[in-house]
Amino acid sequence: MTKQYVMEIDKKQKIQSLDDQIKVLSEEKVLLQSTCNHNESKVKFENGTNTMKLYCKECDKEVGYPSQSQIKEFLT
What we know:
This protein has two helices and three strands. By secondary structure, the chain is of the alpha+beta class. It folds into two domains: 1-35; 37-76, no CATH class. A three-stranded antiparallel β-sheet has the order 1-2-3, covered by helices on one side. Strand 1 (41-45) and strand 2 form a beta hairpin.
């Protein structure tokens, strides 16, 4: 085996390990969000877009779309 080949295997293993960690953390996030009551919300832009949505202030879960008054308050 060449050194380059070993480095590629190490890189693939590291990426797989990171993907596994992301999966575990995502599942934990979903579990925590499912136990939240979502009592208060905040308006913010959806990641990577210019679309405003409502998110829970406590757990940051998307909970809907803001009303016109919430949009106006957010923009002022």
